[in-house]
UniProtKB/TrEMBL annotation:
It comes from the Bacteria. It comes from Sphingomonas natans. InterPro entries: Plipid/glycerol_acylTrfase. The keyword Transferase applies. SMART domains: PlsC. Signal peptide: none annotated. GO terms for molecular function: acyltransferase activity. Residues 62-174 form the Phospholipid/glycerol acyltransferase domain. This is Lysophospholipid acyltransferase family protein.
């Protein structure tokens, strides 16, 4: 790794330590999510993220639905809101990352186990009722940044059951988005090293689109309209 990467790692360690102390103090009074947001925004800044926000993020009880290009998406969206994320359960077992995800309130779901859809939907619906936004990358993983893959409608049922608005979010890295995409088959460690070594800033725009009402749309319609809105916003 380069000297730049080691400097970023050292700065990230100091930032993590400081935020963890503040998080621990704020947790008994229910204010810890603010420090999760500050931690993500700070780490994103260390990695060169330059975030522009268009539209108005809906606070509180809302399901953010976004396209997924890079693991930087989590830092960008998490630093711009107090959202907790939905992630595959294997991430909970990753060293350090899994522990940080749990502290941030991540909702872990199994995408491989058959018959688990009902349990997953209940877990997400419960999270939606706790007052913080919940963020879903509805493509099911990162992929080709040149288009938005079809959204999986299963977890949209959680918003319908909880009566929670769905707000599509288009994550746009601009015409050079392919440079920031997580290459297929690359491990998290190698991808993190690639980003730590990167010299130039990483511009990203978060476009918060008008919320959708689950009282008038079923899960399939919510998925289809979210996909259409995000695809249009990325053109």
């Amino acid at each position: 790794m380069t000297l730049r990467a080691y400097a970023r790692l050292a700065a990230a360690a100091f930032w993590l330590a400081g935020c963890f102390v503040c998080y621990s103090i704020a947790r008994p009074i229910g204010r810890e999510s603010r420090w999760v947001r500050r931690f993500m925004r700070g780490i994103g800044g260390l990695l060169g993220l330059r975030v522009t926000i268009e539209g108005r993020p809906k606070p509180g009880h809302v399901l953010y639905v976004a396209n997924h290009i890079s693991w930087l998406d989590i830092l960008a969206l998490g630093g711009a809101s107090e959202a907790r994320f939905i992630a595959k359960d294997e991430i909970a077992r990753w060293p350090l990352v899994g522990s940080l995800a749990r502290l941030g309130g991540t909702v872990f779901v199994s995408r491989e186990r058959r018959g688990a859809t009902r349990v997953q939907a209940d877990a997400v619906a419960a999270a939606l009722g706790e007052g913080r936004p919940v963020a879903l990358f509805a493509e099911g993983g990162t992929g080709d940044p040149s288009f938005v893959r079809p959204f999986r409608p299963a977890l949209f049922a959680s918003a319908v059951e909880a009566g929670t608005p769905v707000q599509p979010v288009a994550i746009d890295y601009g015409p050079d988005r392919a440079r920031y995409a997580w290459p297929d088959g690359m491990s998290f460690a190698d991808e993190a090293k690639r980003m730590l070594n990167r010299a130039e800033p990483v511009p990203v725009t978060l476009r918060f689109l008008p919320p959708l009402d689950p009282a008038t749309l079923d899960r399939k319609a919510l998925a289809a309209q979210s996909h259409a809105g995000i695809s249009s916003a990325l053109v």
